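Lecture notes, continued. The same structure-token format from the folding unit now serves as the input rather than the output. Read the line below as a description of shape only.
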């Protein structure tokens, strides 16, 4: 059979040949999640290295002090893994799975907080060096702003790793790795925070997690718009 289809112009073929470049394949979701783990562990441990372990860790015991934080950190990496799937249209998980994981993360953080407070309730002020009493609102600001900044740093690192994402729902992908960043930071912060009242933990620490979710969603939306615009220009 004779191929009668029109051949492309020689100039077009030369332009295509000159534009050919090797393309590095995107890492698989599991590998991408593993690559984020040491970064998340390092950033989430900074406050623990700076402040030390909370004073009531002996009352809580190793399971509720370290075990709960380890479970929370693992959940954070799972959220990043889901975000990596979301960033690959062919490997995107069902909506029900995505939203169920987000709700489960919220419930786990709240459950750990309630369990911690039920075993070690504290007063409304913090005694520093046995002399100075710090008002609750100062601790709220310190933990809220501090954990939000730490989470923001982690989100920027995550967004760099997700910079070539081709997610069809980039806002959802960004919100997922933003939630992962917030939960990971909280996993370390809760071990160091010396002011674990229920109001403070759910208020200041919880607000920081919400802030990282919103920040991740905004960055994901921006990266998605940029990548789609770049794809339109190249086509």
């Amino acid at each position: 059979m004779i191929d009668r289809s029109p051949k492309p112009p020689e100039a077009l073929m030369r332009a295509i040949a000159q534009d050919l470049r090797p393309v590095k394949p995107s890492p698989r979701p599991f590998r991408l999640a593993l690559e984020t783990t040491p970064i998340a562990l390092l950033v989430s441990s900074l406050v623990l290295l700076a402040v030390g372990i909370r004073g009531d860790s002996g009352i809580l015991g190793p399971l509720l002090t370290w075990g709960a934080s380890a479970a929370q950190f693992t959940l954070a990496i799972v959220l990043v893994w889901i975000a990596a799937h979301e960033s690959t249209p062919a490997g995107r998980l069902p909506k029900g799975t995505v939203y169920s994981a987000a709700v489960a993360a919220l419930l786990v953080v709240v459950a750990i907080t309630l369990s911690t407070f039920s075993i070690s309730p504290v007063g409304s002020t913090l005694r520093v060096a046995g002399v100075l009493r710090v008002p609750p609102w100062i601790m709220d600001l310190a933990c809220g702003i501090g954990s939000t900044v730490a989470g923001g740093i982690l989100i920027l690192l995550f967004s760099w790793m997700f910079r070539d994402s081709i997610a069809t729902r980039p806002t959802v992908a960004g919100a997922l790795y933003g939630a992962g960043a917030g939960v990971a930071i909280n996993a370390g912060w809760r071990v160091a925070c010396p002011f674990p009242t229920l109001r403070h933990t759910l208020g200041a620490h919880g607000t920081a997690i919400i802030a990282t979710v919103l920040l991740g969603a905004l960055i994901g939306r921006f990266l998605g718009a940029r990548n789609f615009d770049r794809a339109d220009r190249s086509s």
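Point for the exam: The longest strand covers residues 126-128.
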